[in-house]
Amino acid sequence: MITNDEMDAVFHALAHEHRRRILDLVMAKPGLAVGELAAAFDVTRIAVMNHLAVLEKAGLVLSEKDGRSRRLYLNSAPIQMIHDRWTDAYSAHWGRRLIDIKALAEAAAKTTKGPQ
User: Could you tell me the CATH number of the domain that includes residue 46?
Assistant: First the structure.
C-alpha cells in the first residue's frame, strides 16, 4: 500500500512537463546515461539533475553508477500502486453496473423485437 506522503511525492514529480518527458525518455531507453538525457533538454545539466532528484525521491527513477556516469531506469511501481488504489474498488463497482446495463439493454431489445 502506498502512503499519502509517497503519493504526494509521485504527483509532485509528475506535475512538471520536463519530468514527464524525462520519464518518457528513460522508459524508451532503459540505462540512459545522465549526459545523454541532459542533451535532450534546452536547460542546464544542473536543472536536469534537479528534476532527476525529484523523480528519484518519488521512486520513479532508479540510477546505477557505471564508471563515471549514471544509468537511469524507470520504476513504474509507484504509479501502478496509485492506479491500483483507486481502480480496484471502482472497477469492481462499475463492472457490476455495466453488467446490469447490458442485461437491461438486452431485455429491452427482446421486448421491442416482439415474437419472431
Answer: 1.10.10.10
